[in-house]
Amino acid sequence: ASIVKASDEDVALAYGAGTDLAACAAAWRAEGASLVVITRGAAGAIAWLGGATVEVPGRSVAVADTVGAGDGFHATLLAGLGRRGMLTPEPLRNLSPALAHAVLVEAVAASALACTRRGADLPRAAEVEAFLAGRDPPPAPGQAGSR
Known about the structure:
Elements: E1 3-7, H1 8-15, H2 21-30, E2 35-39, E3 45-49, E4 52-56, H3 69-83, H4 89-93, H5 97-115, H6 125-132
Parallel strand pairs: 1-2
Antiparallel strand pairs: 2-3, 3-4
């Protein structure tokens, strides 16, 4: 796989509690992954690429439900890489730390927004954009105030 995404909980279940995330990421990269991303819940996410490590802190939100947080993160990660032309192996091998950081910021924001909702109600791109800009995101379909 060119991209490996897991949560710290996934790593603990697969390899045991206390597994060193950086060592795990290094092993996956040695097997050929160009980008390894490990999410850490409220603590944010870390990515390993090339010779760099990129860390993005979590965002503080009022949590209603964590269902959908991982899916929201992963979908936004892939969408962000895709918008930037980075979903094929060659460009992904050349992903810069700055670009990885930008994509992780979006993915962490989407994950945080997903936690403010009940059930797997993933945020839309406009909602993530508004959240990152410090504006109230438009209400999700089906929520009070939506059209």
